[in-house]
Write a structure and sequence with these properties.
mainly alpha; 63% helix; Fatty_acid_hydroxylase; oxidoreductase activity
Length: 370
């Protein structure tokens, strides 16, 4: 946990200043530090104290099932739109509805069975991965938050005075120091951890995803399963070979939450957000007001390009940002995709499966929205 790691560093510096790498430049100003030290929790809405709610939030069952339930609920909503064909949403489909039936090489029931299998494996692995509830309660719930914030104070003082200068910094800290420490503790550090975890997930998935396309063995035996969906839809987001599902999704998320030093509840939020995002990326609709499409350039339209023959060697980034595609030259924009007059044979790419090699598409561009 980031707070505990920070506390260990602070404790070591205060107990043995001469031997510690970290020394607080302004630690001598005890009046300033005392003024900054919170005397009350200033706890936000997500800090729960009800024992019943604490037991639920800290249980393995809740944290394992939450992202899975969210995935099925969100995908069911998208599926409802697919079935009902409301005019507003039909105008915003990336592909015409009949294409789903004519071009996809796997049935809806096969997709559902594969997703259910992956979630079963995910529950089994997660049960072994997560610690027992008693350990979680002791380490993450029944802790002295005031003491942790107190240990954070010298670090906030040093950073503020370094950024603003001593005179201005001291004025700010004397007036707002306590609320600043509380904000950093409850919001700043957790927000940074979540962003850092997003970046870790993206890095893990980009290089594994790219390897799945550039390595003949990996594509043919594992990743080709997912590309049986030429026209993606929400439930198909987790239509993968079980080995790929374990490596890209389960293992990647587990590594991210460990490296980002997240608590169990933070990790669960990460998994829930990832489940919503990956379903949205495969939904098949362009919706400017959709938070996942509004806030992230890596969205349904961006990922749809990757599912097409002309973009199968592009847009490997998923599920949040497009940074790795930009840095390594594997990005294809919709404008570039629309410049393709026809989708071409993939027969020259020997590592693709047979149905991929001979997939000649007679349709034109993906449908444009006026």
């Amino acid at each position: 946990m980031a707070f505990e790691a920070l506390i260990r560093m602070v404790s070591s510096s205060s107990s043995s200043p001469s031997s510690s790498i970290f020394t607080h430049q302004y630690g001598y100003n005890s009046t300033l530090l005392m003024n900054m030290t919170p005397n009350s929790l200033h706890a936000p809405f997500y800090h729960i104290t009800d024992p019943w709610k604490i037991n639920i939030a800290s249980s393995k069952t809740f944290n394992l099932l939450a992202p899975i339930i969210v995935y099925w609920v969100v995908c069911s909503m998208w599926h409802h739109l697919d079935v009902m064909k409301y005019p507003y949403f039909e105008k915003r489909r990336i592909h015409e509805s009949p294409e789903v039936i004519s071009r996809n090489k796997v049935t809806f029931s096969q997709v559902i069975k594969a997703v259910a299998l992956q979630h079963t494996i995910q529950i089994f692995l997660g049960w072994m991965w997560f610690e027992d509830q008693d350990v979680i309660l002791k380490r993450e719930v029944y802790v002295d938050h005031l003491q942790k914030m107190s240990n954070l104070v010298p670090w906030v003082a040093d950073a503020t005075l370094l950024l603003l200068g001593r005179r201005t910094g001291e004025k700010v800290l004397l007036k707002h120091g306590e609320s600043l420490v509380a904000w950093i503790y409850w919001w700043g550090i957790p927000t940074f951890q979540m962003y850092f975890a997003f970046c870790l997930v993206d890095t893990w998935q980009y290089f594994w995803h790219r390897a799945m396309h550039t390595n003949r063995f990996l594509y043919r035996h594992f990743h080709s399963h997912h590309h049986r969906l030429y026209v993606a839809y929400a439930f198909g987001a987790l239509y993968n070979h079980p080995v790929e599902g374990f490596i890209l999704d389960s293992l990647g998320s587990a590594v991210a939450e460990k490296v980002a030093l997240m608590t169990l509840r933070q990790a669960t939020l990460l998994f829930v957000i990832s489940s919503i995002k990956t379903a949205d990326d495969h939904c098949g609709y362009r919706l400017w007001w959709d938070p996942c499409q509004l806030l992230f350039a890596n969205n349904a339209d961006y990922h749809d390009i990757h599912h097409q023959a002309y973009g199968i060697k592009s847009n490997f980034s998923q599920p949040f940002f497009t940074n790795w595609d930009k840095l390594l030259g594997t990005q294809m924009s919709r404008e570039q995709a629309d410049s393709k007059t026809r989708w071409k044979k993939l027969a020259h790419d020997e590592h693709y499966s047979e149905h991929d090699k001979h997939n000649i598409i007679s349709q034109g561009h993906a449908k444009k929205i006026d």
